Amino acid sequence: MNDFGSMGPGNMMPPSFNPMCQGLFEHQMPKPRLAFKMPRVVPDQKNKFQTDDLFKRLSRESD
Predict the structure, then answer these.
(1) How far is the C-alpha of 8 from the C-alpha of 23, rounded, in Å?
(2) If you average pLDDT over every residue of the chain, what do you get?
(3) What's the DSSP call for residue 25?
(4) How far apart are CA 3 and CA 55, in angstroms?
(5) Angle at the Cα of 48 (from 50 to 58), degrees rounded to 5?
(6) pLDDT confidence of residue 53
(7) pLDDT tens digits, residue range 12-39?
(8) Contacts of 16 (CB under 8 A, 6+ apart)
(9) Of the segments 4-8, 15-19, 52-56, which one has the largest average pLDDT value?
(10) Rounded distance between C-alpha atoms, residue 52 and residue 57, angstroms
(11) How far apart (Å, rounded) are the C-alpha atoms in residues 56 and 60?
(12) Where are the alpha helices (DSSP H) in the chain?
């Protein structure tokens, strides 16, 4: 043991957390890009949901 404490790997911090080196290793995460398109909305969604066979079947199965 020396003046700096134990130098084992369990006590070592990565340079990004070392207060002496904060400016050197600043890492910025890339900004997320919008990778999907928003679905189009049907003008009369409620009527489409109530009349479409697929939606009727899914509604019955979920009950």
Answers:
(1) 25
(2) 70
(3) S
(4) 71
(5) 55
(6) 92
(7) 555 555 566 555 556 677 777 766 776 7
(8) 22, 25, 26, 27
(9) 52-56
(10) 9
(11) 6
(12) 45-51, 53-62
Q: Are 25 and 15 in contact (CB under 8 A)?
A: yes
- 59 secondary structure, DSSP code: H
Find residue 2's DSSP bridge partners.
5
Kindly report the pTM of this predicted structure. 0.31
* Range 8-32 burial, b when 16+ CB lie within 10 A, else e: eeeeeeeeeeeeeeeeeeeeeeeee
Q: Which amino acid is at 22?
A: Q
Alpha-carbon radius of gyration of the chain: 28
